[in-house]
Design brief:
- The structure is a single chain.
- The chain has 198 residues and is mostly helical.
- It is 58% helix and 3% strand.
- The chain is globular, with a radius of gyration of 20 Å.
- The protein has one domain: Cobalamin adenosyltransferase-like (Hypothetical Protein Ta1238, Chain: A).
């Protein structure tokens, strides 16, 4: 009877399948956890976490671009799906399901242009600064550059879609411009590089 049915058990968060140092790609292929695919996936995951933190700081300040950051995090899930589907072992069904188009790249370019038009021109090298929102966005930009460095060899080896690398390249530019925009909107001063006295 329903009254005597056992309660549903939540699935365990741990699987133990990676205890020997291997993990699976989306195609089912087992590779060492140190494989460059998992390096790229880890860097992308870290990037999404950094953007999430920047988004929380920015939300506290009422910035309207927070929805864009959430959309970027969703796109990074798609980036991860593409990276987890190495083209050397992917069937056509895998490729269709995890393909990555140029459309998100073009959207980032539109956002970059929109914010850039509102910013004062760059006259010096800017250090990560300008308040918590801005500094967190600068940190996200630095993590994005590392993710891009991890992804480029996969693209060059024909294992990932070139649009993934393009997206990360534009994303770092977007995060830089957005960091400056956040500082400007909050009235925070951006620290600039000053050459030390010899």
């Amino acid at each position: 009877s329903p009254e005597r049915a056992a309660p549903e058990r939540a699935p365990r968060i741990y699987t133990r399948t990676g205890d020997a140092g291997f993990s699976s790609t989306f195609t089912g292929e087992r590779r060492p956890k140190g494989d460059r695919i998992f390096e790229a996936l880890g860097a992308t995951d870290e990037l999404s976490s950094a953007i999430g933190l920047a988004g929380e700081f920015s939300s506290e300040k009422g910035h309207t671009f927070v929805d864009q950051l959430h959309k970027v995090q969703c796109m990074l899930q798609d980036v991860g799906s593409n990276l987890a589907t190495p083209l050397s072992s992917a069937r056509e069904a895998h490729r269709k399901r995890t393909s990555f188009s140029e459309k998100p790249v073009l959207e980032l370019e539109q956002w970059i242009d929109s914010y850039s038009e509102q910013l004062p021109p760059l006259r010096a090298f800017i250090l990560p600064s300008g308040g918590r929102s801005s500094a967190a966005l600068h940190f996200s930009r630095a993590v994005c550059r590392r993710a891009e460095r991890c992804v480029v060899p996969l693209v060059q080896a024909g294992e990932a879609d070139p649009n993934v690398a393009k997206y990360l390249n534009r994303l770092s530019d977007y995060l830089f411009v957005l960091a400056r925009y956040a500082a400007m909107k909050e009235g925070k001063e951006e620290k600039i590089y000053i050459k030390p006295e010899p």
